[in-house]
Amino acid sequence: MNEPDRNTRHAARMARKKTVVDAAIAAATDERGLLLVITGNGKGKSTSAFGMVARALGHGMKVGVVQFIKGRTDTGEEAFLGRQPGVEWHVTGDGFTWDTQNRAQDIATAERGWAIAARMLADPAYQLVVLDELTYLLSYGYLDSDTVLDALANRPAMQHVVVTGRGASEALIELADTVSIIADEKHAFRAGVKAQPGVDL
Ligand code: ATP
Ligand code: MG
């Protein structure tokens, strides 16, 4: 096929595609708060949530972030996003279960973090709420699943919520509007590379 023919065919194919895409865009007319779940074993769950924090702040929205599990307060996301006007940022964890080795303390910490999250989920002033690593508190049974699901389901109608963490439950996935399961194809850690600032923290 000569070059002019290829160009003509390409233009026709793109015109057909545009009709389909335009129709799909025209059909999506709803506006409401969304529940997003970013789960799976691959890297990119929390950073996806923080990307949405940046987007929301760019629109002047009020954002609440609760980081469960992690105790560290030296991450790039907190240093940068946590100090932006419009963000309320809480780091509520004491570290991973294999670090704390103290179930009673982990549960008390989980409940303290959840109290902050529950307050945000009841307040329409928060337009985006990120519950980072929340899934673990459900899979370990540190928080009551029904309590958490009820609070998510009954949050303000226009409030967006992002939940991250591995092993999201079926019930959480069912409740969510958008679910991404990030696959672990490769991770530099397994090649002996330690967590890198700017990439991993
Ligand atoms: P990120 O915060 O980088 O988006 P994540 O939220 O998907 O990662 P977590 O399970 O919360 O993943 O782990 C956070 C830390 O562990 C990051 O330093 C990340 O690079 C690293 N990590 C994530 N997935 C893996 C993996 N499959 N193997 C090894 N390390 C991982
Ligand atoms: Mg994470």
Order of helices and strands: HEHEHEHHEHHEHE
What form results from the Cα inertia axes?
A: globular
- What is the chains' assembly state? single chain
Give the low-pLDDT segments.
none
Structural class: alpha/beta
Radius of gyration: 20 Å
What is the topology, as strand order, of the major beta sheet?
Answer: 3-2-4-5-1-6
User: How is the main sheet built?
Assistant: 6 strands, parallel
Looking at this structure, what is the CATH superfamily of the largest domain?
P-loop containing nucleotide triphosphate hydrolases
Separation of termini? 51 Å
Mean pLDDT: 94
Number of spatially distinct domains = 2
CATH topology of the largest domain: Rossmann fold
Would you count the extended β strands for me?
A: 6
- Count of DSSP helices? 8
- The CATH architecture designation of the largest domain is 3-Layer(aba) Sandwich
**CATH class of the largest domain, anyone?**
Alpha Beta
Helix content: 40-55%
Bound small-molecule species: adenosine-5'-triphosphate, magnesium ion
Briefly characterize the structure.
Helix content is 44%, strand content 14%. It is an alpha/beta fold and 201 residues long.
